[in-house]
Amino acid sequence: MPELPEVEIIRRSLVDKLEGRRIHGVEILLPRLIKWPSAYEFQALVTGKTIQKLERKGKYLILQLDDSMMLVIHLRMTGRLYFVDNEEKTDRFTHIIFDLGEGCKLLYADTRTLGTLYAMPASELWRIAGLAGMGPEPLTAEFSLAYFRGLVHARKGRIKALLLNQKLIGGLGNIYVDEAMAIARIDPDRLACSLNDQEAGRLYEAINQVIEDGINHGGTTFRDYRDGTGKSGSHQNYLAVYGRKGQPCKLCGTPIERKEVAGRGTHYCPNCQR
DNA sequence: ATCTGCTCCTGGATGC
DNA sequence: TGCATCCAGGAGCAGA
Questions:
Q1: Which nucleotide is nearest to A93 (CA to C1')?
Q2: Domain A4-132: which CATH class?
Q3: Near strand B (CB < 7 A), which residues?
Q4: Strands, E assignment, chain A
Q5: A4-18 helix and A197-216 helix, angle to the nearest 10 degrees
Q6: What digits encode the pLDDT tens for the residues A41-81?
Q7: Where are the domains of chain A?
Q8: Which end of chain A is more exposed for a tag (fewer CB within 10 A), N or C?
């Protein structure tokens, strides 16, 4: 599941290949992935435009085209975006093909087809509620300790639900949330407002740390995730709890457990996190 | 404000 | 081995 680190690695792996290239045409094999406007209009809006910038906000990739046209992509669970410069065969999961000329293509593939694509002028980005309403991201000045403490103090719900809420913090998903809570030794079942200042501070540091580590390790590859050139990440080899049910905690040896918290599968050490 | 539950979707894991 | 069922979860939404 691509979260902030994975999307950032995809962006970095594609930026030099995409910026300055012209979109000669778009082949849309699965129109329902285009959420705005219609697939037909989407095609018309991006065809002939040059990719000026490739940016990321939270888990969204944003291709800034000519005339402030924005091509926005969210990979959701199994979306993949990658660049090819030869006549590679495309598999049955390739749903959208951007022809970049000179034999180069940008492919959108997605096994579970939950991903979403949009095209609109910059002035209309408010249409994408999840993008327009996104909270500050880890590792930015806006995501300050004071901001985080304020959130934690004010929220009555579970701390895990807070961390997953993109309106409050942008870019975290299930894997990095479980990891941050493990590193900070916080029980994911705790209510946010029950955390004291010291615990909130530990969690704040852990969030920034797991995101930074995830990026430095090229992302976490469980099954589907690859960067824009097809390369896997390695952060799965460094995980404290996620996907390690039954395996010993790296700190105390207690078997990692899994339960449902805030509607999500949640991995934790029952000894370290309480 | 916050919760639960549902929807989208399919490959892989599990159960018998 | 084969078939049926369950599960993964990002995000949006309805309804409580």
A1: B10
A2: alpha beta
A3: A 32, 77, 111-114, 154-158, 161, 223, 262-263
A4: 25-28, 34-36, 51-57, 60-65, 69-74, 79-84, 94-101, 104-110, 116-121, 257-261, 264-268
A5: 40
A6: 999 999 999 999 999 999 999 999 999 999 999 999 999 99
A7: 4-132, 145-268
A8: C
